[in-house]
Amino acid sequence: MRLRLDPIACTGHGICAELLPEMIRLDDWGYPILDDATVPAELLPMARRTLNACPALALRLEREPKAPRG
Amino acid sequence: MSLLASSIESRALWYLTRGSGAVSLLLLTAIVVLGVANVARWSPERTPRFVVQRVHRDLSLLVLVFIAIHIATVVIDGFAPIRWVDAVVPFGSAYRPIWLGFGALAFDLLLAIAITSLLRARLGYTLWRAIHWTTYGTWVVAVLHGAGVGSDTSTPWMLGLVGVSVGSVLAAAVWRIARGWDGWEPARVLLVVGAVLMPPALAVWMVTGPLRGGWAVRAGTPTDLLAAAAATASAPSVAAIVLPQQADFSGSANLDRASTGEAATLSTSVQTSDQVPLSLSILLDGEQEPEGFSVRSGTIRLIPPQGAATYRGEVTGLDEGALRARLSDGYGDVIDIAVQMSISASGQVQGRLLIGAVSSSEVVQ
Amino acid sequence: MSGSATRDPSADVARLSPHLDRAVPISLREHRAAFPPPSTPHRASRAELIDAIDAAGLRGRGGAAFPTAVKMRAVGGGKRRPVVVVNGSEGEPASEKDRVLMTLGPHLVLDGAELAAAAVDADEVIVGVDAAAPRARRSIEAAVGERSAVARRGVSVRVVPIPTGYVAGEERSLVHLLNGGPAIPTSGPRPFVRGVRGRPTLIQNVETLGHLALINAFGPTWFRSIGPDEMPGSMLVTVSGGVAHPGVYEIEVGAKIGDVMRGAGGAPRGVGGVLVGGYSGTWLAAEIAATVPLQPSGLAAVGGIVGAGVIAVVPEDACGWTETANVLRWLAGQTAGQCGPCVHGLAAIAGAAEQVVTGRGGDATFGRLNRWAADVRGRGACALPDGAVRFLQSALEVFGADVRAHLHGRRCAGSREPRILPVPEPGKAA
After folding, report:
1. Set of chain A residues whose Cβ sits within 8 Å of the Cβ of B176
2. In Å, how far from its chain's centre is CA C399?
């Protein structure tokens, strides 16, 4: 699973960076920069909590795209 | 017929209703303020913003618990004719329908707000935001309920509480307006208009309504409850009379059964035959059982002659066949009484009234 | 498949250009004299038409260079009846090719649109044209009017003006506008899945449709006879700036930029730098530009894109960095205002770039520019921030000497010259 952000919905509250600092940091203007990597299993519950805490509901968890064959 | 010992409920429930109502209003005010703090992206120094968000959410769930207590106590207490359904279906109660109805309306809105917030991720942002916007209106409705239906509205502490709450929410509304809007513009107009009109409108309404005499009648309090209140309020001169320590009485009793179940009301009207003729009205709620009448609760009125103040109060106990009560004349005089009585099959009552500080050893069979 | 090795790359390519070699728009009668009406294929030949486009290897000429046949198959494969949108918004200020094609050769474009509608079984064609390009708009509206007199097949064609703006021509912005909203991007599904009124929407650039009409007339083999395998055929480019004869030229895909500049009369004042692709494209140093072939792999090798076919030459005595700062400030004003990193980031980048121009910036400004560029890339809903960052970073490389001079307080003479790269006022075309 990977974290995905809807940049139009995001209004820069920054609560996500408080709850998941391992994978989210804020830029100079208070908007989140997401780590593109797979969310480790032990962080998944916290990641889900972060999704629910976003006031703008701008965060999503997406399945990894399958590796291309051939 | 004889009176059976049973547990007598006190008015503790009524106090709990009023208390939980006041706490709920304070919690709702805090919730509104914290909600605006969320939008304003404010948090105390060195406190992360998710904490403010979490406290806002937790208080919202806590207030629902307090409101549940508020509802349960008033329905179980039964003093006022309020049913369970009146807590969610507004404006249908027998007791102050409009003002109680506002409470039901506020409760319904709070439930909708809470449920949509818990299911926010599934319902989507737009729907959640639209319903969440009704919080300002819900708060106003709750205040109207409290002021219109409460019996403490004119007391200083209640006025102070309402004042502090109104001030806090008004400040929060101004803060919210100052933050600006990115969405639906009419919402901003509504809030500005509401914030400007609410305090003066509320003040005018309170002064001409709950704080003016006779509100209980105008608010729709049922007449039997009014009569009890009026009896204490209408006593004219304050001439204190000397009450006898003991007096025998006789009179008649009437048993009204409720249309369903075993509940019944025993009403007694008796007169003493002594130098100071007293009228005694005893109203007992309970159940008619084969062995006798099981008393659940009751009120007693002691009416002295010549327009002196009526003493009234509630039955606090029944031991060894004697009813105990503490009566007050509404002007500060309080007496303890014990009433022994027997009721014949034809409804004739005979008994003895003992007034003053009475201990059980003085009760004579 | 014949490659371009045996051809003289500077020779005139005459495929679209005969249609443009005129002073006034072509009428339907004149167009039909040279060009038969596109055949209207029924179900079986719909697939054949797309196969022919696939065989021709046609790729979009709007900037993304996406294979047209793939797009058509995706749109036509949906359950609902698709819509075709002709993208004539041309938000790139330094590009004029689409405007010229729509003004002078509207019927070739509309033939292509009709064919595209047939290929995906669409019943509606919407022609978008820049609201601030009155000649193009008048011409395309007249052409649509001429054709409606002989309309058939139940395909409705209408012209919709598109508000001027850099992001207005982005696929999702167009769909947003046509669905009643503003011309700014959305986060929703891609248009080929769900677009105008929820239907699969095929959005094609004006020039792409022109080539489509030619492929249908002369066949895929003919189309592939020039240009590289990865992007066959010819393309229109807008050459501007310090060249003797600026204008719209048709070239073989893969022609070297240096040869194209020579074809436009050369650069009398020398070359300080060449902007390739557009304001989302890349600056190239003169010596590199001379040998880079205008095809996807050629530009990718130097960190660039083919883009909208813009070739803007900054003379040696002008200040490439001042031009860059100017464009960056304009791009910062072109955001849709929806995504924080883009709105704040581009404004901050433009401010820092201007500080460099006026000599007030120090090494810290340089560091900030690089950091913000890295922060902003990929964090918007559309490609605007990515393009601006590419534009900025290539400028830092190509105009490094200028930048260093400015940082240490020396303001160059070139920075006081009139602007080479156009930055239109809001609501006006270049």
Report:
1. none
2. 24
